[in-house]
Specification:
Elements lengths: L14 H12 L7 E6 L5 E6 L3 H22 L1 H4 L3
Antiparallel strand pairs: 1-2
Length: 83
């Protein structure tokens, strides 16, 4: 898996602010593919893909899952220490 680079925590107050903030941070990167997932208040999920075939969608979703696991471990390191 590729190295996961985290954007700084967002100060956004709305989804639109978050998207605009993220877009601005990505502007200096050499971005080749993007996936977007959003959940609305009634539980519906919207997905969007830019330059993603099936394998790229799987690859990027795998990175999101790894990022979540990494954040869980960082939040609870004592739980995962082997003694």
């Amino acid at each position: 898996m590729a190295e996961i680079l985290h954007f700084p925590p967002s100060e956004a107050q709305t989804p639109e602010e978050f998207i605009n903030e993220t877009r601005d941070m990505m502007a200096g990167e050499d971005i080749s593919s993007v996936i977007i997932v959003a959940k609305n208040s009634n539980g519906e999920v919207t997905t969007g893909y830019y330059q993603c075939d099936f394998s790229t969608r799987l690859e990027l979703s795998g990175h999101i899952q790894c990022d979540i696991i990494d954040q869980m471990i960082r939040a609870n390191p004592e739980r995962y220490r082997v003694e």
